[in-house]
Specification:
alpha+beta, HIT family, subunit A, about 25% helix, about 20% strand, Histidine_triad_HIT, HIT domain-containing protein, catalytic activity
């Protein structure tokens, strides 16, 4: 889990409305916004408002209900923006591409059913 006294993540600052973002969904516990460097025609970041979990493994172990809510919000976004066909990517650890250590998922897809996501939408390891 996050160490106390550390600086708030960029996601915490977005949640606090200190940094602008295009918010596409929000619940009491979850917020979703457009990725600033999209890797697919639809690329939305879905994160918890609780910064204590650094990655999906910690979240699953610590609060499975919150993980289920995060996935449900991701599914709702995908239904609205990608016709329900999407990738849901959790990067866990710096070597796997995680750059913000505040648990989050990437919803990636396309609004067109004929479009296919290439391997570059997964980023490089």
């Amino acid at each position: 889990m996050s160490s106390s006294g550390s600086q708030p993540s960029i996601f915490s600052r977005i949640i606090a409305r200190e940094i602008p973002a295009t918010i596409v969904a929000e619940t009491e516990h979850i917020i979703a916004f457009l990725d600033i460097a999209p890797k697919a025609p639809v690329h939305v970041v879905v994160t918890t408002k609780d910064p204590q979990y650094q990655n999906v493994v910690e979240l699953a172990a610590g609060n499975s209900a919150l993980l289920a809510e995060l996935v449900a919000v991701a599914e709702q976004i995908a239904a609205e923006r990608t016709n329900g066909q999407f990738r849901l990517v959790f990067n866990t650890g710096a070597a796997a591409g995680q750059t913000v250590f505040h648990v989050h998922a990437h919803v990636m897809g396309s609004p067109e059913l004929t479009d296919h996501l290439g391997e570059d939408s997964l980023g490089t390891l």
